[in-house]
Every structure is written in C-alpha cells, then in structure tokens.
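User: Can you write out an input/output pair for a complex, sequences first and structure second?

Assistant: Here is one pair. Inputs:
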Amino acid sequence: MTAGSRVAVIGASGAGKSTLLGVLDGSVTPTAGRVEVHGAEPAALRGRELRRLRARTGTVRQHLDLPGPLRVVHNVNAGRLGAWSTARAAWSLVRPQGTAEVRAALDRVDLADRLHERTDRLSGGQRQRVAVARLLVQRPDLVLADEPASALDPALADVVLSLLGELATEQDGALVAALHDPALALRHCDRVIGLDSGRIVLDAPASSLTVAGLEGFYGVVR
Amino acid sequence: MTALLDRPAPGTRRPVRNRRRWPWALAAIALVGWALADSGLFSGPVVNPGGAAQFGRIAAAALRPELAPDFLVVVAESALVTVAYAVLGGGLAVLLGALGAVAAARTTWGRRRTGRLLVRGALAVPRGLHEAVWGLLLLNVLGLDPWVGVLAIAVPYGAVTATVFAGILDEVPRGAHDALRAAGATRGTAALYGLLPQATGSLLSYAFYRLECAVRSAVVLGLIGAGGLGYQLALSFSSLRWEQVWTTVYALALLCLAADAAGRAVRRRVADPRPGPDRDPVLTGAAVVVVVLTGWAVWFLALSPASLASARALEQLSYVVSAAWPPSTEGDLLADIGAAALDTVLMSVLATAFATVGAVTLSGLAARSSTAGRARRMAGAGVRGALLLLRAVPPPVWALVLLFVLLPGVLPGALALGVYTLGVLGRLVGEAAEESDRRSREALRAAGASAPAAWLYGTVPTLAGPVLALACYRWEVAIRDTVLVGLLGAGGIGVLLSAATVAFDWPAVATVLAAVVLLSLAVDLLSDRIRSALR
C-alpha cells in the first residue's frame, strides 16, 4: 500500500473485513503469512517500540469500544495516550489536558457542545463521531476505520469520511476503511478491495468501478 | 416533490457541565476527612510499640498451626456445629422471607400504599439489628438453648430476605400477570402463574446466597457463646494459643470457601440453565442436600419445638417486655447515645473508605485473567487467598489482634472492620473487574497506550459506578458490624448496648436498640439515595 492511498474494503458480513483491520492494528495475531506496518512487523516488537508503532495507527472500531461513563473530553484525549506518559494521562482525568485541540476536533465533527457530557448519554451516531474526533487528536499515519459511517445520516457520513481521508493523506499516510455503502466507497476512496471468506476476490482502482457493479458484487438484485 | 420546511439556524451552544453529583462527592470527602481526624491519626500516637513482639508471635504461628489429632477432632466437631446453625438459621430465614415477601410486595397491596409501608417499616426493626444483638436478646429470653443461635440468624435474615424477595417479585415484567387477571384469574392464581415462574431464578439464587452468608453469621454467634468454630476461636484466643487460633482460622477459611464455591456453582446454574427437559442434577442435588442437612441439624443440635413455647420462656419474654416499657429517656443516656452513634458512623465510614481504597488497588491482581502470564496468575491466586483469610476471620477477632499493635480507641475498631470489609469488597470488586468489557482497554492498547494508562481510561471509568455502589452497600453492612465490634468492647454504640444488657437495665436497652435501628435505617436510606445518584 502506497503513501497517500485511500482503500475501501468491501465484502459481505463475515467476509473478514474486521479481522483484516485487526491484523493491521495488531489486536489480531495472524495465523499465517506476515504483515508489515510502517516498515516493521508488529508481532516481532515488544514494549516501547511496539507502543511507538501502535501510536502511529489509529482505529475507529466497529463497536467503537468507548468507555461509556467517561466524559467526551477524556474519550477524545484517549487518542493521545500513546504519546503521553502515564502520569500525564492520570492527571488529565482530573484536569483535562489540551482541551483546545479536543474542542477543535469536536468542532470538526459538529459535537463541540458535548465536551463534558458522558459518552453513554450520546446517540449512536454521536458516539461514532467521538471515535472519529479521537483519531483527529491522535494524528496517526495509518487510519483504519471499521464501518465508520454506519450510524450517520448521508451528509455526516460524507463529512466523516472526508475527514478521515484528509487525516490520512495530509501526512502522507493511508486510509483503510471497511464500508458497506458502494457509493460512499467510490466517492472517498481510490482503490477498492473485495473480500470473500477471507480471500481477496477484487482489487481495482475506484475509477474503474461503478455503484451498480459493486452492488452486483454484494449480490443486490433490483 | 420535497418541501423543505424552515429549519432553525444552528446556534452556538456552550458545553455544559453536569454538577449534579458534586455535592455528594464533597460530602463524602468531608465525612472521610472527619472520620480520619476523629480516629486520632493526626493528633497523637496510635501505635503501641510494646505489642509488636506479641504480634510477631501471632504472625509466626501462621506457618505452624496446631495439628494434634485430638485438637483437630475438636475443630471438626465445632465446624459441624457452625454448619448446623447456619443451615437451620438460613433455611428458616428463607421460609420466613417467603412469607414476609407476600406481606411486603406491591403486588399484594396494589394501590393501598399505607399497608405496604407499614409492613416495610415493621421489617426495618429486625433488619436493623445485628445477628449478635439478636443473639444477646434471645439469650435473655430463652436461656442457653440452641434456638438462640438459630433464631438470631433467622430473624434478621428473614426480614432482609422478605424485603429482597418482595423487590424481586415487584420487578418482574407484569404482562403475563395482567393478562391472567384480565382473563378472570384471582389475584393469587395470577401471581402463581404469571409472576412466580419468572421470578424463580432470582429467588433461588438469592436464597442460596443467604445460606452462604449464614455460615459467617454462625461463626460470629459462636463468639458470643453459641458454640462452634467462633467459640473455639474465642477460647484459643483468650488463652493466647496462637497455633490453635490459626488452625481454627484455616478451618473457617475452608468452610467459607466451600460455602462460597457451592453457592456460586448453584447460582451460576440458576442464571444459565441447561437446555433440555431433564432436571439439572446440580440444582436437584443442592435442594436434596439442604433438606437432608436441615433434618440432620435438628437432630444434631437437639432442637425441640417445645422449648420455644415453654412456660419459662413465655414468662421471661413478658417480664423483659414489661420491664423495657417505657424506654428510658434520661438526658445523660441520650447524650451518651448521641456521642456513641457519631463514633459508630465515623468508624463505619473509615472502615468502608479503607476497604474501598484497598479493594480498588488490589482489583487489578484479584481479577482472574485468561491472558496473563504465569507470574501474574500466581500473584492473583495469592491475593485471592489473602482476601479469603481476611473475610474468614470475624471483625471482633481482628479488633483483638489489632489491639496488640494499636492503642485503644476508634482506630483499631475501624481498622478491624476495614480489614474484614476489604476481604469481602476485594472479592466483589475483583469479580466486577473480571466482568468489565475488555475491548475498550484493548482498543487503547492497539493505539499505543501503556498498560496503566489503558486501565485508567478503559477500565476504571466503567468500574467506578459499580464499585461505589458496592461500597455503599458494604457501608450498610459495616454500620451493623460496628455495633457488633462495639458489643465486644471496641467502642461506639455497641458498648452502651452491652453495658445496659449486662446491668439488666431494660429501659436503657430499649432506648439503645431504638437508636441502633434508627441509625441503620438512616444509613440504608442515605446509601440508597447515593446509589440512585450514581446511576
């Protein structure tokens, strides 16, 4: 995968999209083959080295996995835990650090007024945007997103995917997004990879594909 | 054609902070600070350097408990006595609770609130007094009779069980019940077919939990003379035979562990029933064992229903009641009660705070982890074993041990309670940590967070609410246990109670008892409010 690329991963439910993203961020250990992220193999690293590598990868997980009782400001700040010392992380829970950047990030996803709210008081779509704001303050080189727009209205879905795409490309990184909406995939990505039962069955530039063609891939019959 | 209606211009809303819980937090901090100041920790020496040697001897004896065969026989017999009291007391409590639940449930009373509130108020009296207090009172009515131990457990436990059972019944979804009522079923039939089947699991689960607790209570009753392991412990302790003390403590720990494990196995089965039409062998076995044990215990303790209704007991009861009425309203006594009540509250607060801090600190280790390495797993097993020992020893015994190294005062009593509560709370918090969702912590780790930072941001926030709720619940228990510790001399309102009982000053006893009940009730209500503010 080259710097600056935006890749959509598509495939039916259970095709292996989330597993692929998990392998990339190191939360799933590959059973065969090898993966290189930022030029290093995550499975071969330990301790500080591994942390530094992981801090360069940001993920929006499918189930978000944001601790509910934590306030929005802390959940966004959690994106910087890879860069912060433990003492600073602990102190930030008492006096939130770097609120200006948190506020700016929330502003970009239209949630600025929810800074001090408990995350579990937000709607599904709002939580999804908190997860995106977390990535905005983390500033990773590699952005992994597992259905980041599943609970958003069409306008917000576009905003969020543009943000993730910008984030990835502005520092010569890359975006890998698992998406179910063919139109969204074609609008925001320049390469589409199709998975079926864990194998790549489609790998083509977005410009060569059509919405109808991708729907056919899913088996949509109109 | 889509018509766009006028939409409001996007306003600039300022982020708002929710300050609803701040007063609670400030009050809690102030209360703990006051309790610390009152304990004398800042105002003078609290450590008794002369007792260190004796304390060392106690600790050293842990490694060489008394294993002489004749002493082991005595310990085994004592364990049987404790089990017999626990089974009979716990079983009777569940029976009383089932009857009381019918009287206390909203289902029974419908919209007639007065009746329900009266029953709930009446239940608060037996519930507010510790098992040992009941034991002391019953001793004065029944004399030395096995019924004392059985009833001392059954009466307060019965009241608690009734309240909890009624709550379970009231919280069952009412659709089926209402449909049956609408189809013309009587109130009783509708409850039997529409409510009870849905509530059985929770009721059974709680009943077994109560039996588990009864083992611990039976030990405490032994301390005030009902026999069993508690009595054995007190005997060895007062003769300073530390090897024997440790043998008894290990026996207690084993008994508690067995009760915990059996109770947990049954409750797990109830929560997650096996598929298929067959009876679950574990549940059937548990029911049979309880019935057989009950029969054996009646025979073993030589319990006779006649002694409960004997002329002497009735005469003594009417004498005590008539002597205790009207309760004393002497100014001196009331002032003493006020001061002692304050001490009791501060002791219980200090104990709960100590236990909560300790339990949270240990929770990382106490929680079982499937992914951990060998060293971490060994440390976890060690911590869980230590917590088991902490809760196997009743708080009054802890107070006696601590009095070797601390000067008398509020502190040894509070610490004794704190150590015991840490044993209970440590296990509960550890279990809560096991159940907490690991995924948010793993997500943070995947983004490069260090292990402690991931724990702080991923686990602590989800754990804080449940842990504070558990701490509040333990505070309710601790306030009753403080009375118990005081009963055996460690300060607080229990001291007044034991002094008045020993002097047969029944009007004063009545006043102190009323104060104890009111105190427990007040703490229950406050803790209830705090827990609802936490939700």
